[in-house]
Amino acid sequence: MKRADSGWTTSLADHGLIVNGDNVSVYGMWLEHYQKTQILWNGNHGRAIFLQNEPPYDPPNQAAWMNGTKEGYPFLKVADSVTSFRADGIHTWARMSAGGSDNTCFLSSAIETPIADGIVFNAVLALVISYPESRGGFRHIFNDVGPAVDGTPYHLTSAYPQSDMAGISVNARVASFPRADAR
Length: 183
Description:
The protein is mostly beta strands.
């Protein structure tokens, strides 16, 4: 399930996956570049093992990519009504490169989820790719709280311009949610 790596005005899909059923499991999914929330998870007792995601590279500017008053869209939104969900091994990469070097785009949060004993995330990685002409990233990993992952200070420092694989991650945070000491 993948939207093309470019084409903000030609690839108009909002979401890559919407899960409405209970007891759904997903294993090894790459889902990338949709204009809004990549995955909407509305069912209980869901399980995801290895999700790889990239938000769209090419929002024309932050004003065009807003979720109400929030910047951008989370890559994963677990519905407020969900009480049981588990995800292990998730990573999301941001490389906001449309609009030239004056364009800075952010996502308020990589993941939006209810806080409940039955909702667990392990091994979550959020990266920003330092790519020529790219700036921005994630304000937070979970629910509009916690540290940012911001590639703006590293603008134009990629060791391998035009590559998504090597030498270009500029800032990363690994997280589990909720933290064991917060339960």
